[in-house]
Design brief:
- The protein has one domain (3-285).
- The protein is 77% helix and 0% strand.
- The protein is built from 11 helices and no strands.
- Helix 3 runs antiparallel to helix 4 (93-115), helix 3 runs antiparallel to helix 6 and helix 7 crosses helix 8 (209-234).
- It is globular.
């Protein structure tokens, strides 16, 4: 298998641990999901800057003409946190998550075709459809309430915005990798995202040490480390392929729910897992 695919797959597995960790924090501490997202970036950015400095042994510098791309990336990272967690709050959690995750590879393929002229070959298109079908079944579409009530529509639109934000920072990151080291790209953009989300920070005064360790874990593993692996893999992987491989996130998240929280896998979820794994095998062999 392509080593770059493995890096992205491991990143997706790390992302899959974020949901259950965030749920654990919310269950034992009164902190909003948006604040959890903000803490992720605040804890991740110093580590990313330190690792970047230790690798390059010099102060990070960028060319003025690339400044707008770093700004777009940082804004997209921050917007993803805002749109996704607000969508979860305004609508049904499962529906918002399904929309955000399934639409992100579609937006990625479209933007990659428009802005970096990445071709969508028939096999890639077929694998894209197969992976989205598998992801939809894994997230147990039969038990998801696709309600069209007006109070939920804003949340659904924000979930679409989350998927678009993911696509924007993936395509922008792919462009910046032509000029900069992957660590430089991630360190600067996530630091910018952290500054933008500072107003969303909440200090959980009643939180135990366990909560702070959980927040620190979110910042280090499924954020800093995962995005380092993702951007390293993205350097030698097509945007659409990277987005498809990233769909391992809900698969691993479901696996954690089964093993850690004792949930049961339905037949449809089993079929979805088979379809998603099949799509990943196809794209890796290709």
């Amino acid at each position: 298998m392509n080593p770059s695919f493995i890096l992205i797959a491991v990143a997706a597995i790390f992302w899959g641990t974020a949901g259950i960790t965030s749920k654990y924090i919310s269950n034992i501490c009164s902190i909003s999901p948006l604040a959890i997202g903000a803490w992720r970036l605040v804890f991740a950015s110093p580590l990313l800057l330190f690792v970047c400095y230790m690798k390059n042994k010099k102060i990070i510098s960028i060319k003025r003409k690339h400044g707008k791309f770093f700004l777009i990336y940082g804004l997209a990272v921050a917007l993803y946190q805002v749109t996704y967690f607000t969508a979860v709050r305004l609508s049904l959690v499962s529906t918002a998550t399904l929309i955000a995750i399934c639409i992100s590879p579609v937006f990625s393929a479209i933007l990659a075709r428009i802005f970096i002229k990445e071709k969508i070959k028939p096999l890639i298109f077929a694998v894209l459809l197969l992976s989205i079908m598998g992801t939809t079944l894994i997230m147990d579409i039969g038990n998801i309430d696709i309600s069209l009530q007006a109070r939920y529509l804003g949340g659904y639109l924000l979930a679409l915005g989350a998927g678009l934000s993911y696509a924007i920072y993936t395509v922008t990151g792919k462009h910046l990798l032509n000029f900069y080291d992957p660590l430089t790209v991630v360190a600067l953009t996530f630091t910018l995202g952290a500054f933008l989300l500072l107003p969303c920070i909440e200090i959980p005064h009643t939180a135990s040490l366990v909560v702070w360790f959980a927040l620190l874990y979110l910042g280090i593993v499924p954020t800093a480390l995962a995005y380092i692996l993702f951007i390293l893999g993205l350097k030698r992987t097509a945007v659409t392929a990277a987005a498809i491989i990233s769909l391992l996130e809900p698969l691993f998240s479901t696996f954690l729910s089964l093993t850690v929280m004792g949930e049961r896998l339905s037949k449809l979820q089993g079929i979805g897992a088979f379809l998603l794994i099949s799509s990943l095998v196809l794209i890796s062999r290709r």
